[in-house]
TrEMBL record:
It holds the Pfam family DUF5795. InterPro entries: DUF5795. This is Small CPxCG-related zinc finger protein.
Length: 74
């Protein structure tokens, strides 16, 4: 699993998923580059796939430089 720096702090995939979700998650995959820029500050965006519950899989996106985050829920 790869750790990344987000807003000046090193985070694990689980911690990144918690930042996006706002609460604990069951499991998280490795962090990857999202190949997109932050819509708020233009910074680099990273992504992580995670399971917030037993029946759901979500891909979360987080800017490495500011508070912006989103997920792929419709």
């Amino acid at each position: 699993m790869s750790n990344r720096v987000v807003q000046g702090r090193m985070v694990t995939p689980e911690k990144l998923a918690e930042l996006v979700e706002g609460e604990s998650v069951l499991e998280a995959e490795s962090i990857t580059d999202a190949d997109r820029d932050c819509p708020e500050c233009g910074g680099d965006v990273i992504s992580v796939g995670y399971m917030p519950s037993v029946t759901e899989f979500v891909t979360g996106y987080k800017c490495q430089d500011c508070d912006w985050s989103a997920d792929d829920r419709e």
